[in-house]
Amino acid sequence: MTCKEKLKKCKEEGTALLATNFYNFETLKGLLLAAQKTKSSLILQTSESTLHYLGIKPAKALADSMLKEYGVQGWLHLDHGSSVELVKECLNAGFDSVMIDASERPFSENIKITKEVVEIAQKYNANVEAELGYVAKLGQKQSLEPTSAVEAKTFVEETGVNALAVAIGNAHGFYKEKPYLNFERLKEISAVTNCCLVLHGSSGIPDDQLQKAISLGISKINLATETKNIFMKTLQSVLKDNREIDLRKVFPVAIDAVNTLITGKLEVINTVRHA
Question: Which domain holds residue 175?
């Protein structure tokens, strides 16, 4: 089953997939141990920074080999691709899904760029995700203005995009105060679009809000910051006043921490179906 088919099935069945970023072998292992334990499918995501760090082809080979090793159904996704050129590189390398993020461009330009990527991805049968509205990135001020349902309808119809990330009070990174998702706007967007809806910035969103978002139409939930944070905080704790130089004895504790985090997230997500 392709990533595009799986997300379409999630939308039809009223379920959601967890899409998790990995950064190295250790974080990837933690994610897959959790998916294996909960018998869950998983979208593995790589940001541009991760691809600069690992390389596109090594990231693809690592994901493929580890999915096979742990017996997990999963797909590799480019998260927040900033250019058509990068999208093409990832598709040529065999990525199952790509995101083109032109959300900070004018509406008409976002449509034009996204439509171009959708057309390119057709011959690969790959899933294409875009973003509409302002989901604040790290260091940016969060906007209170959610994605317009009217614009979402037009955007999806004109681009033919498979998945759409929306702004409903969510933001990338950690929240300075408890977030409150705009569920009324989510319902409005869900009612007028036929593609998979995506929630970015789930790190720090309370479990009950994640579950309600799924019940109202979200079919893909992105998680990154919490994974990085727990991995590094665990390592920092272990390495404090520690003279161990064998990284093979140090990393497993951080891998276990990622495993525990993702297991909890999957258990939260897997119990919900859309109303």
Answer: 3-270
